[in-house]
Specification:
The chain is mostly helical and about 110 residues long. The protein has a single domain, classed as Fumarate Reductase Iron-sulfur Protein, Chain B, domain 2. Helix 1 packs across helix 6 and helix 4 crosses helix 6. The longest helix has 16 residues. It is globular and about 55 Å long. It starts with about 20 loop residues before the first helix and ends with a helix. Bound molecules: iron/sulfur cluster (2 copies).
Length: about 110
Amino acid sequence: MSRFGFTITKARFIDYESNDRRISEYISEMEPSFLRCIECGCCSATCTAAGFTKFSLRELNILIKRGENKEINKTIRKCMLCGKCTLVCPRGVNTRNVITLAKEAYQKAENHAV
Ligand code: SF4
Ligand code: SF4
C-alpha cells in the first residue's frame, strides 16, 4: 500500500440530540453568565491546574455545552477552585461558580435528581 504522508482519521460527529444536556441547562439557569462564554481560552491560559495537568477549562466548557458528561466527570476533579480564571475572563463568566455548579449538577445527574 502506498504511503502519502498523511492518514484519514475516523469521522467524528457530535450528536446533540442524544447527548444529555441537563448539566448545561442546570448551570445556565443557576449561573446565566455561562451563556456568555465564547471559548476563547483565556481561562485555560491562566489556570493553576493546567500548569500541572492537562486540565483545560475551555475544553470543559465545550464538553458541558455538548452534554458529553462522562468526559466532564473525568476532568473536573483537577480544578483547585482557586478562581484565577474568573479574574481574566473577558466575558465576565463566573467560571469558579460554573465549575462548582457543574460538580453539583454531575452529582445530581448521577442520582437522577436534575
Ligand atoms: S475565558 Fe471566559 S469566555 Fe474565554 S473560554 Fe474561559 S470562560 Fe469562556
Ligand atoms: S478555579 Fe480551577 S479552572 Fe479556574 S484557574 Fe483555578 S484551577 Fe483553573
